[in-house]
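Hi W.,

Here's what went into the run:
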Amino acid sequence: MKLNRRQLLTSAVTVSAALSAPAVLGQSRPRVVVVGGGAGGATAARYIAKDSEGAIDVTLIDSSKAYYSCFFSNLVIGGFRDFDSIGHSYGALASTHGINVVHDWAVGVDAGARTVALAGGGSLSYDRLILSPGIDFKPGSVTGWDQSRQNLMPHAYKAGSQTQLLRAQVEAMPAGGTYCMVAPPNPYRCPPGPYERISMVAHVLKQKNPTAKILIVDPKQKFSKQALFEDGWKRHYAGMVERIWPEFGAQEIEVRPDSMEVVIDGEATKVDVCNVIPAQMAGRIAEAAGITNDAGWAPVVPHTMQSRMDENIHVLGDAAQQGDMPKSGFSANSQAKVCAMAVRGALSGSDVFPARFSNTCWSLIETDDGIKVGATYNATDEKIAKIDGFISQVGETAELRKATYEESLGWYEAISADMFG
Amino acid sequence: MKHNRGGATSKQEIRHQYRIRLNILLLAPMLALFAFTAVGAWGADAKRGAELYQQCIRCHQAGQGAEHRIGPHLNGIFGRRAGSVKDFQYSRALKDAGSNGLVWTEQTLDAFLTSPANTVPLTRMSFEGMQAAEDRSDLLSWLRTFSGSLADVPVAQPTSTPAQYGLDPKILLVQGDPQYGAYLASECTTCHRIDGVDAGIPSITSWPVDDFVITLQAYKNGKRVHPTMQMIATRLSDEEIASLAAYFRNLNN
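Here's what came out:
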């Protein structure tokens, strides 16, 4: 991951321009502010800027100068990709599409005045606000864990230094040691994600530490692509993976980061790595904007991805409660295009077509053993509703599994270009 | 850093050009060796090559009346500079390779067919490569028949026809709206790169409208099999397919 000097300069200049004179610029062109530069936010910003050809002023706020994708971060843990390969800069969004990229935290929304407050002290006014903040962790969902303990027991469920930390911890495990994952309850980001991660950790341990054990403590009865993962674990990592589900004590779980213990059903077990993926909710800015429900998610109107509580705010991706789509980067990217079309229609009168959505999630079980699940969706008044879908099958040929994995590599290149190109 | 296409004409492309040259340099001596055993037209089986050629015909035409389709026509390819046939919209990678001196010969075609993506990175040709030297040799022997006099060669086979997939020919008369296609296309570009590069998922830019329509319709009626594409195509109407075809046809990479 490298930012060249020109990109840094471009971002710096556009940031200061955006912050110094928002009101003046705001008079001439409608203004869109996007919070969160991931699969939802970056795609929405890019499509609005690109398709409106300068007619709409687009500002993208993200605290990071570099975006590390959660999708494929498990492959970094498994050693199939290097960390740099999942890093992306916002350079082209600024230089090619004229988006004002602001590196700051959005800390508040004044819905009446239609302004977003920044941690750095500035404020940005908007005609439409797009929130794509991803997830935050629900406080207290795993007894004994909070974010201040994330270096002892990493979540690695937001990609970046946590990804590198978990990878390092797995590689440093003592011979015959135990890796434990505390899996999240539904709904959460990337349904197959925890189980792809198990596969990747098993892949590393099989080579470096073959007597090591993997323990999954899972508050769910069932999980995504379960038959496919369990078949894969049996074929590639026999005897290595054990999963404990609710009847066997995974409902009430406590962790003790200082002594590296996991307490299951009252019994403390010492582990060497503990990957705690807590219960999740919409990124905090959604709550600050006053658009979340009791469950902590932001309900949206499926046709436009507008908040059900504020028509000037759209919500994309993991933070949205929309219906049948899984919380995935692919889904967020798909929703962003519907949102971009609706926003352009509202602000510049461009054509609006019926919303359509799709998703595919690829997972890697072992070298050249890829699987996928996908579906198409449309918008009803009530929810984003599934139309049709498919899933890989147990017993597919090695050739097909390899082709599926290679397809996922092509997808990664394409979605990256679709977000940042 | 994977993607930085906006700002970076420079490094990425220079690297790719370098890789092209390097690949050709490395391959040349290896192939010279091969030439005795495998690659010579002599000993190769053109009849078998004609059968292998069936893998190519969804994209390419060769023979009397051959036209550019998804790929350029292959008449006279031997001795031709890469990316040089008029009126075909090549990837920049292939045009650059031609400008840098890539000429199609027995050797260079053999290298390219082994792995298009490794020989000319960022090519739009979606073909994973032909591993067996004998297959390539036979195929090239067949292709060579289209590089001499065309008087005796057969008429070019069509790339695809509605009848092949049990489709009503009327689907080719449906008019598409490229603007609607542009919106619908945003569903495609999550996986298919809009710059036409095949990085594991086929290139779909600049295809002739008919080939595009027939392909999607064949996924829709299940005569072509791929779970993702069948799912996507099933919910596209004839008008929507025509709109996508019109949009992708005019994408200029």
